[in-house]
Amino acid sequence: MRAVISMINDFSDYMNGTLTFLNSNCYFSFDGKTLEIYCVNGEARIILWEKLADGSCVSAKKEIPSNRLEGHSFDLNADVVFYIDSKGYGYHGSIDTEKVILKINVLKYITIKSKICDKNILVFSSKQFHKFLYLFPQYNLTLRHEDKIADITYKSAVSSDKAEFTFKGKKFVAYPCPTINTQGNKFDFIPEIHIVCDESLEETEMLSLVEILYKIISFLFMRVNIIPDSIYCCSNNLQHNIFYRKATDYIEEKEDVNSIIKYGFIRWNTVYKNFQKIIDDFIDGNADTKHLGNSSESRKWIDFKKVSTISSFFESTYALIYGNKPNHRTSTQKNIDTIIETLLPLKDKGNRKMGDTIDYLIKQLDHVSLETKIQKVLNEYDGYLRAIKKEFGLENNSVTEIAGICAQTRNWTDHGDKRAAINPFIASCFAYLTCATYAMYLKRWGIDDKFIANALLELYMV
Fold this sequence. Notes:
The model is unreliable at 1-11 (pLDDT under 50). The two termini are 30 Å apart. The protein contains twelve helices and 19 strands. The chain has helices at residues 45-48, 130-133, 203-221, 268-271, 275-283, 304-322, 330-349, 352-380, 382-391, 399-414, 424-444, 449-459; strands at 4-7, 15-21, 24-30, 34-39, 49-51, 57-59, 68-73, 78-92, 100-114, 120-125, 138-144, 149-155, 163-167, 170-176, 179-183, 186-190, 192-197, 230-235, 238-244. It is 36% helix and 27% strand.
């Protein structure tokens, strides 16, 4: 395999230019996070002033009518689109004068340049994708001294792991394909996911697909700090470079490509054959991502907040696969239904305190339901979970014990019970519950049985 050779794009976060704001042409300055708009002809009055019935004006701070602002960057000689937080802004200057500088939070922005495109392609590039995509360079450098030119080729162990899927009625093919970036004597091997479409892509389609793919990648990596180093799309003879604002607590991670042990994700070759099912679940909102942490290390610790998010992650997945009705034994379920049917009329007739007490009692029954659900899943998915159960040191603990610990800890945590506590054993139980939930998704997506157990092990090899 030969790499795609390209020059490094030197896009600076800092830029100046003009943009259309409230039907006027204004100058702007941007530092990568905050967009400053120089309103010198009273453009800001429409959002900073409120006109009263008597004709007078008072200070206000209304929502900016559009969350999308178009402009042109002088520095890049490119068009630029800012997606802003229409409520997250401040201003500098007196609103009773025409000159006001608005300071607006930018969520993401796009730079657009003309480029001849022979195909419609979206590219995700990241130095954290080597093992995920199984792309490892083996360089061969040949020097021809007479003209001082070097030939650089590489080999990679990647196969044709092509994921075919349909999105918004258009057909796509996604596959691993690295790039060698060059600048002077610098050569950089960058793993990439190429997503090729048989039709041209509009901006809204492109951004929707980027959002879905980012959620999928985050889910597979079990963390949110996996924003690609570069995202760009070529279509309609234009190149769109997409930049996302990173949170203040964003932790940049570097992959240890030399370690054969560390993974921390579900690999591409595990999921690519079933990508349509995965795409569909994320489009339909069936994949819960509230359990995702801010870094690889965050999966190694459990606090009270994560007790709730992991439990919620499990329960929403259980409902997706089995339905909302807990699968109790017939006699147990009948008793629970009878108790709830008896309690609900009392809630309607009683006072607020009585209603709160009844709600509490019903939640206690939900605790029993959660325990039963966990037992069902741990028993049903035991074949996939044995290896990770041993890895967590739980091989001598029964399903009943683990399910009881998880359900009781969640119950105490949600009710602020002083008996709620976290220790290494409880943390291991919740990590195990997380793996069981991932197993449910992998099975739902039709992943080969032989891959699921190994994928769960690699998820915690960080």
